[in-house]
Hints:
Layout: H1 2-5, H2 8-26, H3 62-98, H4 100-114, H5 118-129, H6 133-160, H7 163-170, H8 175-211, H9 223-230, H10 239-266, H11 269-278
Helix pairs in contact: 2-3, 2-10, 3-4, 3-6, 3-8, 3-9, 3-10, 4-6, 5-6, 6-8, 6-11, 7-8, 8-9, 8-10, 9-10
Amino acid sequence: MRRLFSNPSLAIGLSATLVFALIGLVSLVWTPFPIADIDIGRRFLGPTPEHWLGTDNLGRDMVSLLMSGTMTSFLVAALAVAIGTGVGVPLGLIAAAWGGPVEWLVLRFSDFIFAFPAVIVAILITTLNGPGAINAIIAIGIFNIPVFARVARGGALSIATLDFVAAGRLAGLGNMMIAYRHLLPNIMSLIIVQGTIQMSLGILAEAGLSYIGLGTQPPETSLGLMLKDAQGMFLIYPWLTVLPGIAIVLIVIALNIAGDGLRDAIDPRLRQGQDNVLA
Length: 279
């Protein structure tokens, strides 16, 4: 723990990430104004004592929208990472533990999913079910599966040849128990670090999907949806676009700094190993 908190990158990145996450969590129980509170007579206001960051084109409070949008972006990204880890990590462990045809099938499955970016998957899902945050979660989560599968497989393969794994096999443990008892615990740090990176990418993906109308839909809001709503007024009221844009940039930077710091704090060798796994 001392090594973790003595890492400047981790301390700065994690602190900033927690601040944004806390702002989002607070929005679940309190915002200065309800995000659905429309007041056309007070639209396009600049900063005032009542509305600290002004109001948007519908008279909604920008602070309230940013708080709720941050929560939505974090929630979508976190659930997408959960899908990726829940499916991808077992697949990667199965590939490493069984090898042979099973490993070949997992790798080809990963290649197949990589061929369809999250936007394409979101378009397909939207065609069937309509746009929404759930569809964005599914689309981003599906794209996360091969990432975590490859990371888990690469990390497990580097451990599978060690003596304690061989001792487990000699003791009569099958492939499933080897993966559960020996491989998974030893790659958890790698999975956690990759999870922070995928969180930042998930927030960007959610913003992109909402911006093109495939993600979060009104009356809910997200940072990407705020950008979409304000895009036609950038030259006249630039702060409507700048504020959510800055929020996205700061959150992504904080998550990436936290991920880099966590990787270096746990084991500096993870940086090179993670790059080789994804390559």
